[in-house]
UniProtKB/TrEMBL annotation:
The keyword Transport applies. It is a multi-pass membrane protein. Belongs to the binding-protein-dependent transport system permease family. Keywords: Cell membrane, Membrane, Transmembrane, Transmembrane helix, Transport. It is found in: Cell membrane. It comes from the Bacteria. The chain crosses the membrane at residues 9-27, 75-97, 106-129, 141-160, 182-204, 242-262. One of its GO terms (biological process) is transmembrane transport. The keyword Nucleotide-binding does not apply. Residues 71-262 form the ABC transmembrane type-1 domain. This is Cellobiose transport system permease protein. GO terms for cellular component: plasma membrane.
């Protein structure tokens, strides 16, 4: 009797935490279907309304923001950063994990050490560089600094080191494979779960990034979707939270779809090595 009772208690605790975790997202979608007056009412509305189409019309016909354009800018930035992050991080991780070269240990130490430096310390020198390159208000100012990271390199290095045995690479070298061919034919197919994990984390980080884009992107043509959310409310007397939340729902949908598409690979990449075979 103790085991079923204990299992029910665990499921009850998990259910409670799930409800608390999902309720903010549910509340965000409820607000997106209501007007500002209905949101401010007491008690507040907790069920869906019928004002979603009106709020969407306010967003897509907004005088301050071309919302579709900002979504396009964010998509371009995010896709380029994600693809380059996967390519460069996996190449560097492969080199650190399976190749021998002079200064390897020192370079890896510098990569790991850079993880302890707060990102905020690099904002001023990074802004000066972007200004010297005349990239302010240009999407390149957001894309180029995010194309590779120390975390991505270290993550790929650890995964490749544990997932690919050295004997497999030695067999490939005996067959005449170069390092590039070993990478494309052996490493890339093997680390697909790591690609999914790092890809989702990078996609989410680039899509939700606010601090750096808010510094280098000021013109309306170069705004990202996170910056556009601040300009959706055109009222001078009160904040129309319904429009902001409708925009937030639209900006969250791509993240939700990406996670649904790659959640199995993501979980496999995160849990790989947690259980010994």
């Amino acid at each position: 009797m103790r085991q079923p009772i204990g299992r029910c208690f665990v499921y009850l605790i998990l259910l409670i935490f799930t409800v608390f975790s999902l309720f903010p997202f549910y509340w965000m979608t409820v607000i997106s279907t209501r007007t500002a007056g209905e949101i401010s009412a007491i008690p507040p509305a907790i069920f869906y309304g019928d004002k979603l189409s009106m709020n969407l019309d306010k967003i897509f016909n907004n005088e301050n923001v071309e919302f579709i354009r900002t979504v396009g800018n964010t998509a371009v930035i995010t896709l380029i950063i994600t693809l380059s992050m996967l390519l460069f991080s996996s190449l560097a991780g492969f080199a650190f994990a399976k190749l021998e070269f002079r200064g390897k240990s020192l370079m890896l130490l510098c990569v790991v050490g850079s993880l302890m430096i707060p990102m905020q310390l690099g904002i001023i020198p990074q802004y000066i560089i972007m200004s010297k390159l005349h990239w302010i208000n240009d999407l390149k100012a957001v894309v180029v600094p995010g194309m590779v990271s120390a975390f991505g390199v270290f993550f790929m290095r650890q995964y490749i080191d544990s997932a690919i045995p050295g004997e497999m690479l030695e067999a490939g070298r005996i067959d005449g494979c170069s390092n590039w061919r070993l990478y494309w034919r052996i490493v890339v197919p093997t680390i697909a779960p790591a690609f999914a994990t790092l890809g989702i984390l990078t996609f989410m980080g680039a899509w939700n990034d606010y601090l750096w884009p808010s510094i280098v992107l000021k013109s309306s043509d170069s705004l990202t979707v996170q910056l556009a959310l601040l300009r959706l409310d055109t009222s001078s007397y009160f904040q129309d939270k319904s429009i902001v939340m409708t925009g937030s729902v639209l900006s969250t949908l791509p993240l939700f779809l990406i996670f649904l598409a790659f959640n199995r690979q993501f979980i496999a990449g995160v849990t790989d090595g947690a259980v010994k075979g």
